[in-house]
Design goal:
Blueprint lengths: L2 H4 E12 L7 E12 L3 E5 L6 H8 L7 E6 L2 E2 L5 H11 E5 L10 H13 L4 H13 L15 H13 L5 E5 L7 H18 L2 E5 L3 H6 L2 E6 L2 E7 L2
Length: 235
């Protein structure tokens, strides 16, 4: 089995430039080679301006590289059209952000179900049960009918994590997911990511500025000036 098919993500010489063929063209990512295994729990770190957000957008299939190839679950993505990318992203990747982006008018369970409702319309009984099971898994079984403004920041982020898992993704991308949380709540949310990784076989890539969180991951990928400076296993 090749690395391309054994990995959830496999990047070959990935580059990203902006203002291509213009006088102010700038290359932000300079030939990234990277593999994320199907059970990895990794942190992506680096100073502001290093290209982390650009790389995350490429990994999440939200943007296309200027050159190189990105394989997701063994599928080459550079020549896929928007419809194909959207379907692959929806079926394979869950996203959690620093700002949880919950819909205030909806209950917790409806927020969890939102990706399914957007893709398929009204959820069936099985989908609703899966959403309830996810709320149990994140410790919010008593809050399924609560609106976001009735929940704490940490609880809202747990709803966002449950929402990211509703499509049973192979990869969870988390962009500064604890950045707005106090230390205790951040630790709880981080442990929840670990639980997802262990129990659901979901690879996790966590973008963080917090050295304590990156050290607690199994692996730390350090991006500096658009290139991977180091990629180390943590003890």
């Amino acid at each position: 089995m090749s690395d391309k098919t054994a990995s959830v993500l496999f990047l070959e010489a990935l580059r990203k430039s902006y203002n291509v063929n213009q006088a102010n063209e700038i290359e932000v990512l300079h030939g990234i080679d990277l593999s994320i295994g199907r059970s990895d729990f990794a942190a992506l770190v680096g100073p502001s301006g290093s290209g982390k957000s650009t790389l995350l957008n490429l990994l999440g299939l939200l943007d296309k590289p200027s050159s190189g190839e990105l394989y997701l679950l063994g599928q080459a993505t550079s020549r896929m059209d928007d419809k194909g990318l959207t379907a692959l992203r929806g079926n394979s990747i869950g996203f959690v952000f620093q700002f949880h982006h919950l819909i205030q008018a909806f209950t917790a369970i409806d927020n969890v179900l939102m990706p399914l409702m957007l893709a398929r319309g009204k959820p069936d009984r099985l989908a609703t049960q899966r959403a309830r099971d996810l709320l149990v898994a994140v410790g919010l079984e008593k809050f399924s009918n609560s609106k976001p403004n009735e929940l704490s920041g940490g609880q809202q982020q747990r709803v966002a994590i449950a929402r990211a898992l509703i499509n049973q993704p192979s990869l969870l991308l988390a962009d500064e997911p604890t950045g707005n949380l106090d230390t205790r709540t951040a630790a709880d949310v981080f442990e929840l990511f670990h639980k997802v990784n262990r129990e659901r076989g979901c690879a996790v890539l966590l973008v963080t500025h917090d050295p304590r969180l990156s050290a607690a991951c199994d692996r730390t990928i350090n991006l500096v000036d658009g290139s991977i400076q180091s990629d180390t296993l943590n003890n």
